[in-house]
């Protein structure tokens, strides 16, 4: 996994956790990703230095606008690709696992075509 993909996974994980609960802490990310708290702390410092997030005085992780933009993009890709895979007959667990692998390497152009196809197919009349 390259650094860009790792950052995208961390930010997406924090974003997903923030949809489930108000305060996200390093231990939450650690538990979700099955990484040590020390590893999470190192990565949080790195992403804070790059202005993707900040950790407040109470230890709560908050995504910046820059972090949210990346996280939302990955979240949309992850879900859209997984839904398409499931329509093709892939079971849900495999579809989400595989979409996590594909979402990072897919070009903007290809994803735009997938999104257009999926949305047109599921247009509500």
Task: Draw up the topology in text.
Layout lengths: L2 H18 L5 H8 L3 H13 L3 E3 L5 E3 L1 H23 L4 H11 L5 H14 L4
Antiparallel strand pairs: 1-2
Task: Count the beta strands.
Answer: 2
- Using only C-alpha atoms, the radius of gyration works out to 16 Å
The count of helical stretches stands at: 6
Kindly estimate the percentage of residues that lie in beta strands according to DSSP. under 5%
The level 1 CATH classification of the largest domain is: Mainly Alpha
This entry's quaternary arrangement is: single chain
The CATH homologous superfamily of the largest domain is called Winged helix-like DNA-binding domain superfamily/Winged helix DNA-binding domain
Q: How many discrete structural domains?
A: 2
Task: Give a structural overview.
- The protein is mainly α.
- It folds into 2 domains: 3-67, Arc Repressor Mutant, subunit A (Orthogonal Bundle); 70-121, Diphtheria Toxin Repressor, domain 2 (Orthogonal Bundle).
- It has helices at 3-20, 26-33, 37-49, 65-87, 92-102, 108-121; strands at 53-55, 61-63.
- A two-stranded antiparallel sheet has the order 1-2.
């Amino acid at each position: 996994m390259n650094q860009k993909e790792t950052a995208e996974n961390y930010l997406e994980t924090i974003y997903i956790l923030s949809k489930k609960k108000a305060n996200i802490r390093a231990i939450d990310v650690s538990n979700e990703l099955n990484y040590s708290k020390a590893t999470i702390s190192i990565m949080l410092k790195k992403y804070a230095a790059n202005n993707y997030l900040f950790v407040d005085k109470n230890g709560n992780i908050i995504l910046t606008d820059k972090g949210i933009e990346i996280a939302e993009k990955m979240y949309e890709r992850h879900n859209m690709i997984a839904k398409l895979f499931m329509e093709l007959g892939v079971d849900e667990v495999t579809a989400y696992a595989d979409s996590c692998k594909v979402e990072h390497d897919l070009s903007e152009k290809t994803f735009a075509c997938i999104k257009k196809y999926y949305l047109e197919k599921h247009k509500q009349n």
